[in-house]
Amino acid sequence: MPSINENFLKLEKNYLFINIAKKVKAFTEAHPEADIIRMGIGDVTQPIAKCVVEAMKKGADEMGVKETFKGYEDSGAGYDFLKEAVAGYYKSFGVDIPADDIRINDGAKSDCGNIVDIFGDDNVVLITDPAYPVYVDTNLMNGRKVIYADSNEENNFAAMPDENVKCDIIYLCSPNNPTGSVYTKEQLKVWIDYAKKNNAIIIYDSAYEAFITEKDVPRSIFAVEGAKECAIEMCSLSKTAGFTGMRCGYTVIPHELVVKASDGSEVSIAQLWGRREGSKFNGVSYPVQCAAAAVFTEEGQKQTRANIEYYQNNAKVMASTLDELGIKYTGGKNSPYIWLKCPNNMGSWEFFDYLLENANVVGTPGAGFGKNGEGWFRLTAFGDKDRTVEAMERIKKLLSK
Amino acid sequence: MPSINENFLKLEKNYLFINIAKKVKAFTEAHPEADIIRMGIGDVTQPIAKCVVEAMKKGADEMGVKETFKGYEDSGAGYDFLKEAVAGYYKSFGVDIPADDIRINDGAKSDCGNIVDIFGDDNVVLITDPAYPVYVDTNLMNGRKVIYADSNEENNFAAMPDENVKCDIIYLCSPNNPTGSVYTKEQLKVWIDYAKKNNAIIIYDSAYEAFITEKDVPRSIFAVEGAKECAIEMCSLSKTAGFTGMRCGYTVIPHELVVKASDGSEVSIAQLWGRREGSKFNGVSYPVQCAAAAVFTEEGQKQTRANIEYYQNNAKVMASTLDELGIKYTGGKNSPYIWLKCPNNMGSWEFFDYLLENANVVGTPGAGFGKNGEGWFRLTAFGDKDRTVEAMERIKKLLSK
């Protein structure tokens, strides 16, 4: 009989958001009249920009004509036109990435989850806590030792390295999911120096970079000196351009990034990952790549930036409500997430129930992201403007009682 | 320093088709005037059916309007409309699959490569040889023991189980890539009985099922009694509907399929796979799913069947040329592949070079698919009709000298 990978049995049975969905469903069934506002899952609500839709339709048309039909992509790493568009995007905020160091994927989650395949199971993995559950779960699936760096109220939810701790792989996310906190250039330099001293690799998730507004907050780890010798960066069009249902992202593995195998030979991480992808991935749908490339055109940037500003305005509404109520929070400024301290010392799930029952607003309990999330709560700015205003009015009414 | 997964270093450095591409490139550079006909890689050439293109464009339009915009898919397993369309397709050839046992993916390669994640590394994996390199490589990446069942001239390239051999996981592919051979219902029943006796799971690749013409050749392993308790089936729209560049497929894991964990508890394979996908995959692009669903409409079936018949006619032209030349082959009848014995006792790569140099025709050396492929050669029927005729004329001229 086949043995199963028993590491799976040690995981939480359900992904966090499945548990939330179940709770909301139960509440709705008990209160069918309730007008629920969902600010839990980090999904966007604004439609795809018109020029992006048109580019996808043009790509679809090309697939219907023999002369322009596209079959398998030669490399599976993305068409040059898209890799060059992504390289151009990096250049627009001052970061030089050769197009060949970029691989196109079907969203950051796949690469973020699958990258573990190319590393040995004996690595020690350092993850900031709280964190996006995928970092933890995918390493536990391989039976790896995971240790945590605490992000908490004292450090403004921006964990810094502890020189006494040794590790091999580090996950960082800035702007952070769930806390909305960010690393400055100086802070990232400390992480890079720490990684280099430990010969560790940083897996840097920049999925929310498009929400950065402050100047000293880098939009890529590669904006910081020394990163190319120790970091992999993963980004996505999900939040940048509303691609949660379109599915396209990209991973940057600098050609400078090499490690030593046990026989002392140098191994390129990009080549190792390419070999993995060659056997397990066949590239992204051509019309989706056409749509993605349109995001990086002048018109595409104009249209997608308008959506981001829409969400940023929601975040402002949310932040000012919390300011008014005197509730402590991080995020909202360089991030679509607001991470707030549950009022009256409520626990995360307690506040979840309280808010659901009394304001019919759904958020995400911080405890679902790790131990340092207990007592905290995530709200997203990805909703409809009027509904966000309405949710904040309900919260204000409830909490200022 | 992070250790790498050193199993990667034991793999062939390049995927087979990369090596072929390099050889062809070198030849083209030396002979820029040569008019090369490519019959090597199994990629389709006919455009996507019009109604499928229109469905994708409609899906793209919906993404551009707030009221119809789609973000994350709730389950990541595919929209109900598509799962039900696939279930209906199965029903059209007499196989009952509940829609909930189907997961939509971005092509069979991903699931076929990633399914290894949910099994223990101590499993013994049985693969028929020759085989699609992905089965072997993805198991070697996890350090698993791979054993082979020989498909060869004696058994008409349809390996059958050896009762004296024990294994936990079995890969079968029918119609077979690369040999074009097929299993009859009776032969599959023998494999199913063998799997049940060994408590093994069969991973069944039916990517070429749409090419089956003979009545006693099942289009799904689930057409055979007992399969639901021991088999997973993977299929794709790549060859059925020309989706190699569109990227959509599906995996069927029957809810009946359970194994025992080491503590004796029963574990559902579908649930285990769902947990894996929940952390590492976010579903297929909505407009791609719209396109895929259109394939299974009456009009979609009519249009895509016309493409399959086009390729089947190519296969007939190829088969009759080989018949004329007295060259032995399998496939061509229920398959887009023709697997021929290299003439004059040439080795696979020797014949590759001979054909490339003297007829400017590119095929795939059988040796690239495993030891039993040595001395054999794969040609695909996925090309343009006129070019296929031209290639066969060149081969006839060359080999009847």
From TrEMBL, chains A, B:
Its EC number is 2.6.1.83. Pyridoxal 5'-phosphate binds at residues 72, 108-109, 132, 177, 208, 236-238, 247, 282. CDD domains: AAT_like. Residues 35-395 form the Aminotransferase class I/classII large domain. It catalyses: (2S,6S)-2,6-diaminopimelate + 2-oxoglutarate = (S)-2,3,4,5-tetrahydrodipicolinate + L-glutamate + H2O + H(+). Its cofactor is pyridoxal 5'-phosphate. It is an enzyme of class 2 (transferase). Substrate binds at residues 15, 42, 109, 132, 177, 282, 378. Keywords: Aminotransferase, Pyridoxal phosphate, Transferase. Belongs to the class-I pyridoxal-phosphate-dependent aminotransferase family. LL-diaminopimelate aminotransferase subfamily. Involved in the synthesis of meso-diaminopimelate (m-DAP or DL-DAP), required for both lysine and peptidoglycan biosynthesis. Catalyzes the direct conversion of tetrahydrodipicolinate to LL-diaminopimelate. This is LL-diaminopimelate aminotransferase. It comes from Hominimerdicola aceti. The lineage of its organism: Bacteria, Bacillati, Bacillota, Clostridia, Eubacteriales.
